[in-house]
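Cross-posting from the modeling subforum.

Setting up a comparison between two proteins and wanted a second pair of eyes on the formatting. Protein 1 (sequence, then structure tokens):
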Amino acid sequence: MSTNNMAHRICFEDNHLCLVYKNSGEPVQGDSSGDMALVDTFKNYIKQRDAKPGAVFCGLVHRIDRPVSGVLILAKTSKALSRLSQAFQKREVIKEYLAIVPRRTYLKHNCYVII
């Protein structure tokens, strides 16, 4: 994947972390397919955008399965990676999932059921 559209996929960015939209079918990290991973695309984008002479740090805080689209948290520093990883381990992060289904649903036991 080209770094050209990465700017449009960044939902939030500061000095410590970046929230990036991951497309369905895109690997988060390298795998045996050889497809360009989101983490590598992001590193290349930051290297070009900020004209960084050395390596770009990009810590993977969590993963999203390849068939799924959504927002991914990437740490831009090792300190941010450590703190964010700890927050996930302690279950301090609230995750929300949204599914688009072709039929009507109803709520049963705090879970939507397709009818």
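Protein 2 (same layout):
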Amino acid sequence: MKEGNLNFDEYIRQGEPSQREKAGYWQTAIGLQAVDGLKVSSYLQNTACRHGDITIDEARELVNQYYITKTAHDANDDDKEEADRVSSNIVKVLSSQTFDFSAGGYQSVHRRVFEGVMKHAGEFRKYDITKKEWESYRLKYIAIHNNSNICKHLQTSEK
């Protein structure tokens, strides 16, 4: 199995129908980490595939114990640990099938997703946390929009 690419096909085929749903939760959680440029560990991938035989709480505990007892450390361990813990928390949230589209609901999801990862989990921040990828998208949009206007200007001035 390649790191970062889960193959859930066999996991889904060999299990009960609910495994498809569980695999979808893991794919979503891992994909959300990839959006932030984080990759999960092979350990989490293997644990995710065991979710049919173990509960999400057992999977979360296995991930927690893995990082508590791990003795050899790589350069990307902190990022992988964050990605693993947050992914397993996201799967727990998605498995509960309760989501409230309100400020309190978002606050609850933030607390549940980042619990054990960030000290401020579930707290509203009083400062801007805009991520750099949003700035990048905004700048690309401006560049494309300005380029489009320049092209229109050139087309009309040539006539």
